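U., I forgot to send this yesterday:
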Amino acid sequence: MTTLDERHGEGPRDGDGPRGEAAPNATVVLEQPVAAVPRSAGSKAANLARAARAGLPVLPGFVIPAGAATDETALRRAWAELSEGGTLPLVVRSSSPQEDTEQSSLAGQFASVLDVRGWRDFRAAVRTVLDSAHRPDGSTAPMAVLVQPMLTARVGGVMFGADPVAGRTDRMLVSAVRGGPDSLVGGEQAGTSYWLSRRGRLLRTEPPDAGTRTDPLLTRPQLLRAEPPNVAPRTDPLLTRSQLFRLARLARRARRVFGGPQDIEFGFDEDGRLWLFQSRPITAMAARPPRGARLLGPGPVAETLPGQLEPLEEDLWVAPMARGLAAALDIGGSAPRRLLRAVPVVTTVGGRAAADLRLLGAVPPRHRWLALLNPAPGARRLGSAWRVGRLSAALPGLATDLVADVDARLARIPSPAGLPSPALAAELRWTRAVLVSLHAQEALAGALLHDPPKNRTAAGVALTALSEARAHRLPDDHIIATHPVVLALTAPSLRGPARLPEAMGTGAAGAAGVPTQEFDAVRAYEATSVPAHKPDVVRAHEATSVPTRNPDAVPTRSPSTAATPALPPREALRLRIRWVQELQVRLVREAGRRLGVGDGRVALLRWRELADALDGGALPGDLGERMPSVESAPLPDAFRLADGKVVAERGGGRDGDGGRGVSGGRAVGTVWDGTGARPADAVLVVRTLDPALAPLLPGLTGLVAQTGSPLSHLAVLAREFGLPVVVGAADAVRRFPPGSRLTVDGTTGDVRPGDATEVVLRDAVGGAS
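Result:
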């Protein structure tokens, strides 16, 4: 036997050597070179043979190679020598070339038999292992058999030469239990977990009662026998600092032998000797973002683009948004221009829009004190202060002029069917350019213009208009044509007509629960916003259901001169963004009709491909082979990318941490996800503040969202309803299931499960302790 403290000499025994291509012997001891060949000895035995030859502490044993010649005498002689004539128990283990590889561990897929005593039981155990080579799919795996002694351990466990959960190769993870590790990997015990540095320094410990569970992939037959259940509890430490250092040294040596971090089974016997029972590559390392990877998240952009996007939708809506936000950040001095040019403020991951949360200021800097010492942000702000100061005063007028220009252009555009193809392309180019300006001014208005909390919102006006129209049982296309403001309640899509949400209530101001000012605004809009004699282009434009009217301006004149109640600048800009997006939808559908491409497939084009086709070029040859994107999971609230994979940012702290109150008040109610029966005291818990949720607001007790902005449509509208709202509640959809009770404080941002009385009692008990 070899231990870390007693190393034996390396090299094969006299007379041993490679056998070439001849049929392998009936048995091969682990110290022989041929035992290190996975094709005949299997990966498990080959790894142990390599470890033994490198001087690592491996128990003795022998292998029955795959396809070995039947030699009863040789087999019995090997058994008798290892078991000392049958007096010592053995473990008979599978060792297939298909298991314990870098590609797959196949842990627990083949049989192993523990505590084998006597020749007859040994022969039966060998047969059991060989029979397990027959797979459920009908195939038969090549199978060798590994035989080693079985002994009682004081402490056993599993050690990873890297942290597979965090994806960190500079740390090691050890999980240990008293006795053999079979109860640990079998899930019977959680074990004590130790996080170590590469040199063995203890970084963190989690006892079994901390809720830590071992990796479910770590289910494998064990070499050690657990201590009997009637053994008295032990008070000595499970693993001492010295033993942790020895484990770290073993992991480093195994890494050098095998060329990478290993998944190791180990045990300390009663004499304190450390043994290596199994070593195989780590097959399930979590992706780890590179140093400096950007922190992304749906954040406020999910309010505008909540769904999954196809390529053309990304080019039409995400690219202009990214350019507009970058311009706003540059003007505000929030980020260096070099950085804004190098990375997009908004991008897509799996077809879903995500923003750089640090650029948008949605998360604090990594190191606050370094941020205070860094003179660059202050210098940028100082250089832009004069621009921002002048801009704050000029922005309302600039927004009014931009809104007027957009309205005038929308009114002049004829029906898309009447436009020649080059004109279609020209109008689409204009929409992409004007969206950049609209997004930039909308972002600046949100940052620089502080509207009173009770200001009117486009969503509020839209909700009232929708309630009135639903009361008259009007179809969606007619509602959009006559009340284009309702588009504020929908997200753009090239894959089907805009579908309006169902309105709550009957449509009357009191019955629907809509604030009176919104009801009055719609009445004023209906009475004054449409001129008596409209130009033919306006009538043609309305006939195609492209928005030409709005709640705060006459289409043919400047909003500043309109006799309608005006929306705040930011709300007016956001509404025009949605109208321009809807115009893009109509133009693209007409383009697809002319090119012979249906609505579902035209979205698979890129913008440059569509523009070239409209200018007389050919469609891409592979368009017929392109498939719509497979539906992707919603993005985490905050994440980083590692080799293109989403790695969620780990949040800590108690429930409710990280929330931000955006609408004052405190409420207690029953969690509702917006589907199924609505509780009388419903607290709506959602991922993001989607404008389509606006019809659900009347009658709610509170609103909680995982992401969202205090300046979003829904947040502003909720303030008008006097509804407590909290955004940024991490993992709220999972933590607060429908039907549970919830206390929401829209002032402090606190969200806690249970009634207010229970929360107070918990706080009192926590404070007393």
